[in-house]
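Recall from the previous lesson that a structure prediction takes nothing but the amino acid sequence as input. Here we apply that procedure to Two-component system response regulator from Fischerella thermalis CCMEE 5318. The sequence below is the only information supplied.
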Amino acid sequence: MLTVLLVEDSLTETEVLTQYLRQAGLSVVSATNCEEARIKLSQQKPDLVIVDVILPGQSGFELCRELKTHANTSQIPVVICSTKGTEVDKLWGAMLGADAYLPKPVDQRELTNTVLRLTAV
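The prediction returns the following tokens.
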């Protein structure tokens, strides 16, 4: 079973996204901030990371850049999922290495298709 690390500080968003991902047959591990995400990453390497931009402490943009520049995590696909959905935000996400950028509120089909596309072997 594929595992997704979901980094999201909103309990409501976490519940919605977790439900969508589980309905697609995926296992979900969640973190509410970048520090917690780092701890979870050290314990288990997920098949994909979904990260919000606006998080307490470090932003999701910073976590994305960090994941993409470290050898042991650079191959993990990163999907940025945020209310910050302007073209500039999407461009910035791409420049930092994000594999996809989904605006909130997230469309279930788009999320599922994006995750399955990025984790296809």
